[in-house]
# Entry
Amino acid sequence: MEALFGTVLDWVQSHPYWAGLAVFAIAFAESLAIVGIIVPGVVIMFGIGALVAAGGADFWSICAWAVAGAVAGDGLSYWLGRHYRHSLRSTWPFNRFPRTLEQGEQFFIKYGGLSVVLGRFFGPGRAAVPLVAGMLDMRPAAFLLANVGSALLWAPAYLLPGVVFGASLELASEVAWRLVMLLLLLLGLLWFSGWLAHRVFLRLQPHASELVARLLRLGGRYAGVRRMAEAMANPTHPEARGLAAFGGLLVLASATLAVLSTLLADMLPWATLDQLAAGTFASLRTEGADRFMAAGAAAGQPLAIAVLGGLAAATLAAARRQIALLHWLGGLAGAAVALALLALVTEGPQPGSLIPDAGVLAAGVLFGLLAVLLAPAVPEGLRWSVYAVGIMLVSLTLFARLYLGLTTLGGVVTGALLGLTWVAGVGVGYRTHALDEPLSRLVAGTLGGVAVAALLALAVAAPAVHAPAGADESDPVDLPDWQGQGWRRPPLLRADLRATRFLPLNLQYAGELAWLDQRLSAAGWTAVAPQTATQLLRLLSPALPLDQLPLLPHVHDGRHEQAAWILNQGDTRLVLRLWPSAFRVPDLGTLWLGEVSRQEKRTRFDLLGYATTVPDYPAALRQLAQQLGQVVLVEGPHGPVLLLSAAPAPGVHPSAAAGGAAPPGDPAPAPP
# Structure
């Protein structure tokens, strides 16, 4: 992905004129009648904004091309409507899909000339509004004013989110490419979850009554499902026994599936997929993301059911919403029974099996039931958003549990299906039996506020789950062996998802940090304490000089550096970061792996200022070697590596004295 982005970025930088024409064509197509419905203009303009943030093109020139394309597209649509007028109704595609034109006409009649401005951003039949304006004989001067004015607002509004996102990714990439990829995966999953919930709601909502009627007919046809069907679809029928039978059927089906998947583990691909997912998420782990994901997984803990379930029940009881309270308690009780039964017959999700994950099941029931209770209090046109938020929260929980290694792919799939299917059954029963007792907006708002407060408290109190810290036992390596060829044994590249040739671990130090700190302090270096939230706010002060900007942490093997020093040099600064390795030099202590790099200041749109790493690692390393003196400098497969220890170094090597690097494997001290 990084290589593809870099290729596109290089092309845009090398061909700014053609890039401008491409933006013009995209904006033109996005604004053209009917074509604009097909072209994903929002997504493309967002991506263009991200390229702008990465330095691929000038923001204002791209804005100008986008404005020109938008004006031309709406202008052509207006001319077509004015020239062909009502004959368009009998022309394809309007004769095949007349609804688009009808929505545009209704929108234009309601808002008049303002519809051209509003339609640029939203509204039914958005791509047909300029066409309708021409058909209904809007004055050309008025249309031109609305067209140009709306385009001047539209282009920055559609580009800026991508610019902000791109700048954020660039800033995050300075910390860790793992974080960038994790962010992209999580945002993609949340977007897909919200989109899917919206599409499913739009598909099912108009047919809700028909589905209930089919359920009743199914119960009448098959005696075995009559009690369940009557409980969920008949307002006069008691629910408890029917829903209990429905829940028992779900648990039985889940247990059967789990047992079959275990017996057929060698024939199913789940084990391979679980290994692939576990390896992928393990490679994405960082300390900062661990804390966030631990908070995201909090809803899958038993404490969440107890706390959120109790607070929501108290809220409904205080509001005297008996039917909602009974369905809430019944839904949670069903989930608790299912979890208990699954715990008796299984040992939890295992690699290669389809045993439902308890945490995902709990989150699905909690958020699903909340959505069922809150949605009727929201205007009908926005009810899909309540379900979308619920599904997105479930997706966040299952993603977090996968990331932390608490479950498997099969576990999250079956856990989510079991939980949401149970919620669907309880929800149908609630909607059928609560026709006369819907939640008022006040009660729904209070319930939503209580749920948000409880979830935030659970997230803050969630215990941290850290990534493995590498080897449990240290591997001894004696000093002569280390200074000979043993330095090749530790990692020579920082473990991150970015192309590893750009991330060398170009320093190895054997000894205590206090000794190194004294040497660096004498050379003018300053130790850096962990950054606080207040210090990170300096990123929003682009006028600050480089020496006052915070040092953003780097990541190696899922961990931030344990120690760091800075040497300010005006417009640039040298940075030394250290991570502990699994190796130990007798009589000296831990063997530390370090990164010596140079940073310079970068600003974005006079809103953000931060230090970014310059890829001239050898020059930065040699400068440090000259400052410290009597250090061993060797040539590794990815560039020079500085070997530093608290013990005296051997004599000066001629190549090092000349400022060069020793041959591969031939240690040489740098000149004093």
User: Anything to note?
Assistant: The mean pLDDT is 75. The two ends are 44 Å apart (CA to CA). Residues 140-175 form the longest helix (36 residues). The longest strand covers residues 589-604.
